[in-house]
Design a protein that fits this description.
4 strands, Alpha-Beta Plaits, single chain, alpha+beta, binds adenosine-3',5'-cyclic-monophosphate, 4-stranded antiparallel β-sheet, globular
Length: 137
């Protein structure tokens, strides 16, 4: 079993698509092991997106991720990292295939509804940013 970190981003919250997106993950067979509604601080945004801080799109990304609540969750299942990445689709909603979450619900590169860890190593680092042992059920 693998665990992966998923964020339902502020656009997902504001568009009231959180239930819809969570439902897809649940119907696939993934299990929610930890979950919380959060508001990104500047520090948490910089920690989560450490690899993007120097990129030209980062100021806009940071403003967006702090603009409204988000949900952080840990999903568990067989090959969960790869399964969730394939379910969310390409970064930009314009390029994401129909049938993926980003492909079905968005047209933006920044406001792309969900984030999911891209490797087991990233998942471990990212899960530790949001959750401690006692948050798991
Ligand atoms: P995510 O999977 O959370 O990882 C990095 C995020 O940066 C990405 O989703 C988008 O929200 C955002 N992003 C990536 N590339 C761009 C871009 N070219 N312009 C604006 N935002 C981007």
């Amino acid at each position: 079993m693998e665990q992966t970190l998923v964020l339902l981003k502020p656009d997902c919250y504001l568009r009231k698509l959180m239930g819809e997106v969570l439902s897809r993950f649940e119907r696939k067979g993934l299990t929610v092991r930890a979950m919380k509604l959060i508001r990104f601080t500047s520090e948490l945004a910089d920690q989560h997106y450490a690899e993007h801080i120097e990129k030209p799109f980062y100021p806009g990304l940071k403003e967006f991720i702090m603009s409204a609540p988000a949900v952080a969750m840990v999903l568990e299942g067989e090959e969960a990292v790869a399964v969730v990445r394939s379910m969310i689709g390409a970064t930009n909603g314009i390029k994401a295939n129909p049938g993926t979450i980003r492909g079905d619900y968005g047209l933006s590169g920044r406001e792309n509804l969900v984030h999911a860890s891209d490797s087991l190593e990233s998942a471990k680092r990212e899960i530790a940013l949001y959750f401690t042992e006692k948050d798991f059920c």
